[in-house]
Amino acid sequence: MAYNIMTFGVRGVDADALTAGNQQLNGNVGPNELTAANLINANGIPFQQLLLFMGAANNGDLNINVGETAFNLSDMGAGGAVVSLGVTNNNDPIRIRANGLNGTDTVGDLTANVYYDNARGFGLANIREKNAASSWLNAGDSLTFSTMA
Hints:
Elements: E1 6-13, E2 33-34, E3 39-40, E4 48-54, E5 69-75, E6 94-101, E7 107-109, E8 114-117, E9 121-124, E10 142-147
Antiparallel strand pairs: 1-3, 1-4, 2-5, 4-5, 6-7, 6-10, 8-9
């Protein structure tokens, strides 16, 4: 099946989908393919996840509608930090890696320094920008999105 529309977003996820908040994902554990029953509507709750919504019917609303599938890509930490992108999971349809300034004059892997906000999108806190408020893509920062076969 070919997916042609992708939306990223942060949502709370209930792993068992039976009792809201009963088994929230933590440590990037749990199902990678999620259903509408797995999503928790409340924002700002613990154990939020960076999700990838995919499908021809994707309308960008961060809900799983008919014709859409959501995939858990990473745990979210304090201040919008995307904390487990470096965990390789072959079930994910996409892999995200980051590069940027990691020293006074050196560039390297900054995958552990990626931030995401539903309003602003992706950012990267390089050596000069050490918090989420200043995490933009600039000064040679780059994100690489690779599809998984």
